[in-house]
Every structure is written in C-alpha cells, then in structure tokens.
Amino acid sequence: MKRTLCAIGASLTLTAAMAWPDKTVTLVVPFPPGGSTDLIARTLQPKLQEKLGGTFVVDNKPGATGTIGATQVVRAAPDGHTLFVSSLGPFVIAPHLIKVTYDAPKDFDYISVAVQAPNVLVVPVASPHKSMADVQTFLKANPGKMTFASSGNGSSDHLTAELFWQQTGTTGVHVPYKGGGPVMTDLLGNQVDSSFMNINTAMPQIKAGKLRALSITSAQRSPLLPDVPTLQELGIKDANVYSWQAMAAPKGTPADIKAKLHAAVKDALNDPAIKPKLLDLGFEIVASTPEQFTAFQAAEFARWQKLIQSRNIKVE
Q1: DSSP string, 70-111
Q2: Looking at residue 3, what is its pLDDT?
Q3: How many other CB atoms sit within 10 Å of the CB of residue 167?
Q4: What distances in angstroms separate CA 138 from CA 146, 147, 216, 234, 311, one per listed residue?
Q5: Is residue 111 within 8 Å of residue 251, measured between CB atoms?
Q6: Which residues are paired to 150 by β-bridges?
Q7: Residues of the chain with pLDDT under 70
C-alpha cells in the first residue's frame, strides 16, 4: 500500500510538472518598480512567456529590505506558479541584519543567478581625489574624515565600503540614505565625498563628466570603464563585489520545472535583442545553473555573515 501511494504521489507530481504552466505565473519582485531588479524581471517576463507558454506577470512587493516579498514566495505552493526575482539582499544579507521568517539557505530552490554588476567607487568631479592612491593616503592620514554614502545600512554599497576599510586598514564615515536617488543628489552637490555605487546607477553621471570613477569591484576591468582599475589590481584582496539579480522558487518545486526555467532564463538573457542592452547597462550575463546558484548562495551567505559580524554592522 505504501509503495502504491508513493507511486501515485510521484505520478501526480510528474503530471503537474508536465502540465506547467497551467495558470498565471507570478514573478514576485521585492522592491518598487524602476530599480535594477524590477528591470531584470520585466526583461525576462515576456521571454519566459514566449518560451514556456502561459501567462507571466511581475508583482512588486516592496518592504523590509526585500524580505516581505521573500516571505510571500517561501509560503507559496512549490508548483512553479510563484517565483522570486530578487537582488542579493533577501538571499544573503538581510537574514544577518534583521529578523526574518524564512531560512534563506533552506527555504528556496535556487534557479539561476541571471546577471551581476560590480560597484564602482565614485567621487564628484570637483573632488581632490584623482586615484585610489589619493583616497588611501587621505584615509590613513585622516581616519574617520572621508564620507562614503550608501543607499542604506546593510546595502551592497555599504558593505563594499566596510570591506574596503577592513582590507586596507582604513576608516571612513558611512552616511546611509534611504535609496540611491538621494545619494546621487548629494554626491553631485558635493555634500558627501564618495560612494561605492552600482555601475548601472553611476554610468550616466560618469559619462556626463559629473562623477569620477576611481576603482571597480569586478574581477576584471569593465568594458564600460576600461581605464578604471579593479581593487584587486591595486593590491586590495578579496574585495570583488557584485550586486546580482536572480530567480528562485519555493522549496520543493519539481526538478522538471526548475530545468525548464533555467533553460528559458539562459535563452532570454542571451537573446540578441536583449543581451547587448544589458551589457550596455553594465550587467554581466551569468545564467548559472541551479547547482551553481545553490553553491554560490551558500558562499555569499557565509561571506556577508562573516563581514557583518566582524564589523558589528547593525540596522537601525
């Protein structure tokens, strides 16, 4: 009897996977419209619909640094009809900073890291700092004097600054804002000295000659900023940092559905009509497999946990 029930259960799961999607698939984005994560979700949405059939919609569920949307997804049925498109925050940073109602390593099935983009240290064009050597010399001579703005406590730009200070034995002043918009306004107004800003956000003002890029956190130089050295080139080790956008599903989603999703995401990101546009915005195409993403999430989770604890970073 037990063997028969197991066989029936396996058959039902297989049938559901084969029929998928048989109703609307919701891509939950845990941030407001207009940001990088929303852009990636809305770029994928029509292509997923085209390649997989059915109807795919984007649903923005902002709040609590992305964890409201994350909680909604982990509580959803693992049938492939509720998916999570998010940046790294809810996956590997927020669980170390605030109380969350999910276990990030255990409550998701990881589908694919879609894209990644490095941060770039920028200063106003009027800044006296012309290079990273200038910045480090100033920080060592004037600890706690140079301001580093970020889009908020625990954000990628904040943690990059903390990592930079830790790796160079220097100290700056963290100035958290509520979002990237106010950071840009005060940078351009010379109200703050610098920011490890995401390249997607910084590029328009770098191109306009209003911000100066001093270094980038990628493993190699960016084609968009070929004259800007990486932190690694400058001898600052273990400081490669990327903001990344990825897709996940509730734990227990059938393997067949996960495989179809990964294949569709990979095809969409490499579509000739899409890939060049993403590259021009500063994104690097990743399209990792579920296995690669699972290993990457574990490594990132441990990395940021270690930094947050060692630097005693708190969210007010």
Answers
A1: HHHHHTS-SSSSEEEEEEHIIIIIGGGTS--SS-HHHHEEEE
A2: 54
A3: 14
A4: 8, 12, 19, 16, 21
A5: no
A6: 176
A7: 1-18, 316
ω into 21 cis (within 30 of 0) = yes
Of 272, 18, 270, 250, nearest in space to 111 by CA: 250
Minimal CA–CA distance to 174: which of 17, 23, 314?
314
pLDDT at 178: 84
Which of 188, 187, 161, 189 is CA-nearest to residue 174? 161
3-class secondary structure per residue, 128-190: CCCCHHHHHHHHHHCCCCCEEEECCCCCHHHHHHHHHHHHHCCCCEEEECCCHHHHHHHHHCC
pLDDT of residue 19: 85
Pairing of strands 56-60, 25-29: parallel
Query: What is the pLDDT, as a whole number, of residue 2?
Result: 47
- What domains can you pick out in the chain, each with its CATH number? 2-116+243-310 (3.40.190.150), 118-216 (3.40.190.10)
C-alpha distance from residue 245 to each of 43, 86, 143, 174, 279 (Å): 12, 5, 34, 25, 14
Instruction: Render pLDDT for 20-76 as a digit per residue (tens, 0 to 9).
Output: 999 999 999 999 898 899 999 999 999 999 999 999 999 999 999 899 999 999 999
For residue 251, give Cα distances in angstroms to 75, 76, 83, 107, 223. 9, 9, 11, 5, 37
Backbone angles phi, psi at 245, to 5 degrees: -115, 135
> pTM for the complete prediction?
0.89
Taking 3-state DSSP, the helix, strand and coil percentages for the chain, each rounded to the nearest 5, stand at 45, 20, 35
How many Å apart are CA 306 and CA 312, to the nearest integer?
10
**How many Cβ atoms sit within 10 Å of the Cβ of residue 192?**
22
